[in-house]
Amino acid sequence: MFISTPVFAFPIDLTENWKLVSGRNLDISVEDISWKELKSLPIPKEAISSFSLPKDTIYTLTLLKTFEISVQEVQELALDGLSVHFPLLSNVYEVFFNGEKIGEGGSILNGKIVRNGFKRHIILPIPENKVKIGTNEIRVILSWNPGEELDVYASFNSAPLVVDLQSRNLSILSERPRLILSFLYLFVGFYHFLFYFKRPKQRYDLFFGLFSMFFSVYIYLRSNAVYELGLDPLLQMKLEYMVIFNITAFFLLFLDTFFESKISLVSRFYQFFALILTSLIPFSSRAVCLFLLQIWQFSVFVFALYSLFIMVRALIRKNRDAIRLIVGFIILLASGIADLLGSMQLFSGLENYGLLKYGFFVFELGIVFILANRFLKVHNQVEELNLNLDRKVKERTSRLQDTLNQIRELKIHQDGDYFLTSLILDPLNRYNVRNDFIAVEGFSRQKKRFEFKQWKKEIGGDIVIADEIVLKDRKYLVFVNGDAMGKSIQGASGALVLGVVFRSFVSRTKTVSSYYSQPPELWLNECFLELQNIFEAFDGSMLVSVVLGLVDLKSGILFFLNAEHPPTVLYRNGIASFIEDKLELRKIGITGLESKMKVKTFFLEKGDSIFVGSDGRDDLLLGVDQGGVPVINEDELQFLKRVEESEGDLDLLVKGIQNYGELTDDLSIVKLSYLKEPVRLKSVSDNDLSFKFPGETYFKHLRSENLEDTIYHLENLTNKISRETMPPIFKKELAKVYYKAGKYREALSLFEELISEFPEDVEMIFNASLIHKRFKHFHQAIELGERVLLREPEFLDNIVHLAESYLLVEKREATVKLLEKVDRLDPNNSNAKKIRIQLDSSIPDR
């Protein structure tokens, strides 16, 4: 027989003497023999397993508790209501008082739990009209899924299962200290986040901030305030587990980075372990979640041991921060272990009292003490600095003044060097040449500008030189535009070397016959090689790009070399264009350029202007892009547009360049303007003849291949005109026929006249060279052959002819070099093989 417990005053303890029966039973009497006795809550697992419960559906049990209420206690209810407090019920529950339902949680539909009902601190008001003097009963119907926890807690957070006055039970829900601590820890977390963002290298601030914020969220999820969100109890439980699994991991990472300044392998493994548990929670049932919680609970003991090891090791190393934290750490660790053991229910009477949130507060005081100590240390350093600030400022100012004076003195010496260099460069950088045939204009603006005493000067690597020389009794304008590698003094040094060597070569040309007796191609070649030999001596530390040219004043023929300088521009009839299509030579000073020489030619007409300029004309700063990166002009055609816009005027051209973009490099431009009709074009034209040439009769003789008749016809025509007024085309055709007919002296005489008038005709120069070799005029043959080689470096017949000519004057080395070039162009050339046989039997060079 069940014996109720007599009660004489509220609260009435309901933790002992319950009855238990399988299924939902509201009508079965208290005396029924099917009830099983429970001495005390929580429900033992043995009591549940004693029932034959279905395996594939939810379980349901009914619990019964009777108690007595006296007359005096009923009278107390006149001032206050009565309620029952359940510390925790799981899962779906219904509560009946004297047969009337007073509360429920969760729901079941079609034999399945569709909403969980487990909840902490359930307070259910008891209707006053249901309270009886004497025996009263409470029935609790619990349903749960297989494998889940089933229980009615006797106590939770030190609040037992009781029937008490409504006001006292409601006081259990008062959680001001808990919520205050939750907010405090959240604030501390954000505060350490701020530290981390200011100093990302201090990673321990990040981990402690995460630890503190997660712990704040955990406290909130364990409070009754979370029920105001209306979350599903299972979802709420999963969030709680996901948070708590990572709290220990973040704390371990904090200890590692705070005391060791690195993350250990153990901490990395524990972090990985916590992440795996966290990732499994969202997809698990309540039973699996409880299993994962148990795994984590046992892992906490490993966490506790390793964190204690870190702290002890820091103490052994006499770490001051460890000494300041040790008390708070021990209290935090002890309170955490106590709560863990209580939640695992390993010891009877021990429960989770929620001590950890207070233990962390003590630990946080240690952190605050460390921060305060660091603040005081910095404050003391600032005070010390302030006390000595005036003296230090004066000392610092004095040192800065001394340094500034030294810099000024060095600057004066540097500007003096710049000034002396500019004085040497100025006489070299001259281009004021003007005659009846051609006008030369120039512009030079160096990037480096400076002041020395009362002078304002500039210095750089650009140079423009122009002069007049005579070659083979013909007047030429010679010019060079150079851009030496490097800025300021380095560039100026290169320009100085270029100017001195070039001026020296021009001076020798004016006085030494071996120089002024050279044709223009050979003169350019020799001048280039002399510059190349000088700059090669600097082993690549001083390079220079140049355009080196000669203009035949009477014929208007431009001979020039371009060594990696911007392309030469022609301005003719309002249109600007390049007269070069590809790069032939690298900068002067790079070894191996001799074999790549090529002299280019161009015919100038009256009114033509040639513009030669350094790369400063193209390297213009156009602005900056969105990322702040400077935008430099890369379109070399823009220079052509500026020439056309300026209509060939040099001053307007410079202004147009500066308006288009900002100069980033030295800029030099030389303009050559051809003023008169070329003399070769004033020769007697066909219109001045009394007959048409070439006519049908001439073509008829050519088709018949009767050279004697052809010569006879041309000589008859020659009698009708004077030698001086003979058209160039007539001379050329007559010379070609003489050459084919074997009248070499007559052909040579005409070829030499034509070469002076038409030096661009490589065929005539080559034919004249062949004739000289036939007459054993080997030096004249070599000179003409070299001119052809410079103009057409891959003209195979000329290379073979020149190799043979050098062999005939016993210059073996030159012959070998030319034969090597033939082998590259035509390895099976039969003439070259014959020359090689002669070479093997010839005597060495003289």
UniProtKB/TrEMBL annotation:
The chain crosses the membrane at residues 179-197, 204-221, 241-259, 271-293, 299-316, 323-346. Coiled coil: none annotated. Residues 185-374 form the 7TM-DISM receptor extracellular domain. TPR repeats lie at residues 728-761. SMART domains: TPR (SM00028). Keywords: Membrane, TPR repeat, Transmembrane, Transmembrane helix. Residues 474-672 form the PPM-type phosphatase domain. InterPro entries: 7TMR_DISM_rcpt_extracell_dom1, PPM-type-like_dom_sf, PPM-type_phosphatase-like_dom, TPR-like_helical_dom_sf, TPR_rpt. This is Stage II sporulation protein E. It comes from Leptospira borgpetersenii str. 200701203.
